[in-house]
Structure formats: structure tokens, C-alpha cells
Amino acid sequence: MRCLQRVRRLQRPRAAEEGFWVAVLPFKTSGTSPEVNTLAEGLADEIVTGLSRFSYLRVIARSSTSRYASETS
Q1: CA distances to 7, 15, 52, 58 from 41, in Å
Q2: If you ran DSSP here, which 8-state letter would residue 54 be given?
């Protein structure tokens, strides 16, 4: 069993393990102003774009983090 696990680990692609993974969560805004909501979305997009320029960072897609926009803490 141990040998099989070791072989599977060796067969995995290394690209997914290299670098740091980051996710930019949506900003939570107070109020219902559409301008503020648009600004918050634009800021998050700009942060994702800026971080994706670093080759050692892996930025998780916005579609994967968008479900957190409606969650409350």
C-alpha cells in the first residue's frame, strides 16, 4: 500500500505543486449602492489581474470564489 501511494505521488504533475496558491475573495460592501458594488467588483478584478502577473503565484479563478459573495460572517 505504501509503495502504491509513493508511485501515485511521483506520477502527479509537479506544476500544480509549484508556487503559492492565492484566492481573492469578494469585498463585502455595506449599503445597496450600485456604484459601490461595481467599485468593489472592479477592485477585486484588478487585484486578481495584478497577482496573476507573478509567475510564482497561482491565482484561483474568480468563478471559484464568487460563491462567497453572498455568504455572511
Answers
A1: 43, 29, 17, 20
A2: S
pTM: 0.65
N residues, the chain: 73
Calculate the CA 12 to chain-centre distance: 21
Sequence letter at residue 9: R
Domain ranges across the chain: 14-69
pLDDT in 10s for each residue of the chain, 73 residues: 555 555 555 555 555 567 789 999 988 888 889 999 999 999 999 999 999 999 899 998 888 887 776 665 5
- From residue 20, alpha-carbon distances to 13, 50, 52 in Å are 15, 15, 11
Helix and strand element counts for the chain (H, E):
3, 2
Q: How far apart are CA 44 and CA 63, in angstroms?
A: 12
